[in-house]
Records
---
Amino acid sequence: MIERTDLQTIKSRMNEQRKFIQVISGPRQVGKTTLLKQALNKISIPYDYFSADLISTTNTIWISQVWENVRMKMKTQNLSDYLLVFDEIQKIDNWSEIVKKEWDSDSWNNINIKLFLCGSSRMLLQQGLTESLTGRFELINISHWSFKEMQEAFGWNVQQYIYYGAYPGAATMIEDEDRWRDYVKNTLVETSISKDILMLTRVDKPALLRQLFELGSTYSGQILSYNKILGQLFDAGNTTTLSHYLKLLDESGLLGGIEKYSENKIKVRSSSPKFQVYNNALITAQENLSFSDAVVNPDKWGRLSESAIGAHLINNCKKFKNKIALYYWRERSAEVDFVIKHGHKLIGLEVKSGAKVAKSGMMEFAKMYPKAKVMLVGTGGIDFETFLKLNPVELF
């Protein structure tokens, strides 16, 4: 079992003084609970871990009962501090109001109970946090696994990572590709859409949302206007609906829409999105092209390689959202695959596989932004394996 870099952050927050509620957030099946348990095994602070998995959603008093038991334990054992961990807490109705009440009571009475919350539904967690716990919490964002982590855990090479993506739970199934596809589609994707989106948010056209996900995954790494998207979908809708559904898919860690880079904020907001999956498994699990066939298909492999770079960037930008932001750039026929922004610094990234014809966009981008760095990833530049092991923040 490897130790992800987030483990040190979680452990450090557990050991520091009580300041904020710590919330571990991220997509399904990226190992949030495992990280929590690894960190708990490395600390000396007394703790209790509770999961709401088997608790009735209407049992709203359960949180308060657990909390009061911890207070009593601290008093009878004369403990100066204690760590209380709730996993899957979003399953309890009105959980955030109850947490607010108990947390504020401890703050008022100087009871040193440190609180960690974790849940598989990032959307429901965020909803409760923004509605009731504003100013009381810090987020620890857990991203999809990196190539380096998949290589250390499963011995994968870069080709396997580009094709099979980064779900650790599915990694042992790749010898049986039909079983692997079924697991990704039904256990991961369908659960995320059904439980994290449709059960928690009003979605008037669920078929349209599913079609948008399938289309966006197929076109990962490509720019499509919302009007062009509508022309390829069977269910009626409008651009506002599609934009909202894409945001829901993004919040669930499935599919994002990268905005165009411009110093004009209006142009940024009105730009056509560049679809980008958070995990390449979301592309290949929907297709019938096997790994062995994809590797020798130059056109397909080029698109998968570019999408893998995009997934690496979008996950890191979500993780370090206060440090870096991700865009693409296009002016008329000139295009740059990705633009990373850090403060006032820019990096233009062109991704080139062996079969991909180089664009003229990089030269135009460099003329428009002479202070920006320009980098080539792939053929003639930084090789894919090296880049996928880099933290994009280090490029600056």
Note: Residues 177-198 form the longest helix (22 residues).
---
Amino acid sequence: MLLFYTLLIEEDGDRIKFEKIYTKYKKKMWYAANSVLSDSYLAEDAVHNAFIGIAKNIKKISDPESPKTLSYAITASKNAAIDLLRKRKGLNEVNIDELYDISDKESSSFYNTIEIEDFLVKTLSEMPVIYRDVLYLLIVEQMTEKEIAVLLNRKTGTVHQQVRRGRAILKEELMKGATDNGDK
């Protein structure tokens, strides 16, 4: 499969860089995708899609072994998994425990149900990418807003606003879901 990806890359230096990324991060990317999808075959598809994206953007990566590159690879894999979820709306089981701490006290009973995982994944997958990425990096990767700003090449104030707005969107949708399920 590595040969397929390297055919997408023109320069030898970029191919070597990609091979390092592929070798070093493919398992971590699969685990990240599988944590969203809970399906090993779909996770492989998501990682494949992520690697195609990485191959297309390989020139933007300076050091294939840096933490920034690892975060980029994991984010690409998670986003590809969420995109697959978006295409397969009927998927029931998704392990998204990492996001439980977004809630506030009023919606805690709603989080105790299994359905919240599906609802949360659906809500996240429908969010604009700009908010989804910063929330993922903040919550799952446990990066600071400053680190996210550096990684995404944005101002720290911009990232702060995106985190606030993303959390507000999540909270609003989660509260709507709790009300629809009879919780208050």
Note: Residues 99 and 139 are 7 Å apart (CA to CA).
---
Amino acid sequence: MPALTSSHPLLYATRPGALPARFRRERVLLVGCGDVGLRVAKLMRGRVRLLALSSSAARVDELRAQGITPLLGNLDAPASLQRLSGLATRVVHLAPPPDSDHSDPRTQALMHVLLRRRLPDSLVYGSTSGVYGDCHGEVVTESRAVNPYTSRAKRRIDAERQVRHFGRASGVPSTILRIPGIYAPNRVGGTPRERLLRGTPMLRAEDDVYTNHIHADDLARACVAALWHGAAQRIYNANDDTCLKMADYFELAADLYGLPHPVRLTRDEAQQRLPLALLSFMSESRRMDNSRLKKELRLTLRYPTVLQGLAG
């Protein structure tokens, strides 16, 4: 995506004369301003007015230090979101659903308030690749039918449904990014190092599953590209070019860090020794195709493989 200069037409409202001077630049609202949200903000800082919804007053100073205007509100308390109505020209929604049943009331509350006044010009939602379920190692494009296995993925399906409904009802181009495992050396828990140090076992080759990855910086760049180039109600696989099974990924990282390779288990042994959360990831195998991300969003990955990303 080309850099947005101060003269870029997308940085200004369609009719700047109709707005106060402080509102003439794009106003980008970040909903879910964690690690990736802050990386998104860094890419646009100084070029747009950055706003972020936060439920924590303790984060106000942190967000302001990043050039972001904090807006106190809570997706679990819809009445606290009223000030968001008509405020932003573009929205990046990265907030996860709550841990409850198979629905996402947070996305429902956000879509409701965005519909009330001036509509944004675009919306990007960060979903999960888990919506595809187990694909038995097959190559997966965005046209594949969803088949969620976990409750976590089923909640994301509900969120995607609401985002698509919002886009169709309002005419706002609403883009969905299906995101796999996010990693980065400068992200908390963003590499396999801690699990390698703990000696977490992996599956043997014949039982192992394909996993997919995206560097946190490339994901942030994908979010920004989708804000301006995403097609209406379009889905994009947001992954890099890596094609590795899970244990191979851990062994690659072990070699980089000078650590021992993890012990390999049969699937039956893993069922006895590994936590359910890890087993759920070891139950789904797919190879995601990212052609649409690179062609339609014109995104050149900075870290096309995990080897480059972990070493960098």
Note: Residues 1-23 have pLDDT under 50 and may be disordered.
